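Consider this today:
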Amino acid sequence: MFDKILIANRGEIACRVIKTARKMGIRTVAVYSDADRNALHVQMADEAVHIGPPPAAQSYIVIDKIMAAIAATGAQAVHPGYGFLSENRNFAAALEAEGVVFIGPPSPAIEAMGDKITSKKLAMEAGVSTVPGYMGLIADADEAVKISRETGYPVMIKASAGGGGKGMRIAWNDGEAAEGFQSSKNEAAASFGDDRIFIEKFVTQPRHIEIQVLADKHGHCVYLHERECSIQRRNQKVIEEAPSPFLDEATRKAMGEQACALANAVGYTSAGTVEFIVDGNRNFYFLEMNTRLQVEHPVTELITGVDLVEQMIRVANGEPLPFKQSDLKINGWAMESRLYAEDPYRNFLPSIGRLTRYRPPVEGPTETGIVRNDTGVYEGGEISMFYDPMIAKLCTWGPTRHQAIEEMRLALDTFEVEGIGHNLPFCSAVMDHPRFTSGNITTAFIAEEYPDGFQGATLDDATLRRVAAAAAAMNRVAEIRRTRISGTMDNHTRRVGDDWIVSLQGQTHAVKIAADPNGSTVTFPDGQALRVESDWTPGQPLARLWIDGTTLAIKTAKIPMGFRMRLRGADLKVHVQTPRQKALSGLMLEKAAPDTSKYLLCPMPGLVVRINVSEGDEVQEGQALATVEAMKMENILKAERKAVVKAIKASEGASLRVDDVILEFE
């Protein structure tokens, strides 16, 4: 077995590989850029080597710098993680030339299957059903438009070397095809150092289901069942699960056997994933093969009990697989929520900054399941604009799909993240969405269910009552504490009343509280009484309560006459007032929001790549005004109405903060 391996990656996946290597008794080497000098993976590794400036194109994807780090540390093998150089044939070949083991497939297999254009051609030659499209190289935007017309809209414009949603656009007309081609090309060059683009038919109402394969150097290949990855936004997976709620055993077996046949055809070894589009009749079509470890691999590990990173290392060391296909059963159900530094209330735009609070839920067995959190950050650390916005991958396991979802609901509600915008509320809302819980999902789920973006979840009446009862009980605890403050006036005792008005989400509840040493009973006007017990004390940002025997976790903060409460994707202002306070507060005027309609504001921290207009130009609704880049993604800002540009307040190349002014209109 290897004595030392280098991880040619960063963040969450580097930490993940280090954990398994440590378990196997293997020393690890981390590499890092200037931006990652204090990163968690650097702290966890046995050694760390600096490889350059923050941009990945000047550090993490520069093969010579990785090779120099290997030579300096004497690492015998390299795990590439995902992204960066993980599917770069030249990198694998360079390692082979130096006698360093690549913990992944051989370079010919990477060349054959890692390139989306080549892999599709090979799949077609092998008789595998593929999605219609144009597999050749595309010279320019005009040719992209021509091909898109011939293929038939809508089309998917994809980077040949792409992954993780980078370099991908859906085009529904000529204008979007031309614009999407150039943006995909730019993103592909920045993210992968390869700007080749291809176009395929976009299949409407599809499910994205992938098969995990594992092959050794002794001719054995197995599939570890499937993952459902249909909950996507901008072609980037958000929530994954294993197994799929849609497949039957016959389809699962057919897809698995086809995936293994494809892997065997190219001499594949190590872990890999074959991705399929599956239609409503369970017909499946080959999309691509990812010749690396997938981001969502933990859900497969949770239902099979197989450590995929360990098996990759053992396969690279020449060991045979320790199991047969018949040994790989599906045990229970697993969910994964990807926590991104993206603000769901600003249309999921990237959010960077310092994590002023980062408290994930406790990992390990629970009363009914398992919680796992794979991360590469820590409290006080910084989310950089230079890399992927993923913060963590929160995973849960349960004996059934319903129990895995329930475990995820509670885990999301107890996950504390402050200092940046993040998509925790959105993930929580999905877990409660009737269409998701029924399993009736497609890759269009987010676009169809949240067409106007995410503005927070609306809680049902039963949940609102539980929150109202919790707020009333918590407010009483806070009021009792305030009566015990020292230094108050003599001969005066403050009395805490039993009658309170709770206002939340447009509802008002007049409640009566009866307290005892173990908790409170909150009674509503219709006679319903809810028992509330908790060990919460004022000032704690997370409240765990037991309401009629069921657990409720609420992230809470004090506001005047109440609390800000966050749970299940909702962000509520909950006011708890005496009847007199409620009457007086109704007389208060609301503060009007400032008028920003004459300005184009930067919606996220980022770099101004292009200004598309000049002062004095008349712009039309939908016209591109500027492009801002953040976290390797280009965001085109468009005019919301017809206007004339009065002044340009930002220049190309400028780094802007949220709400900085880019343009002013007359």
The chain has a mean pLDDT of 93. The longest strand covers residues 221-233. DSSP finds 17 helices and 40 strands in the chain.
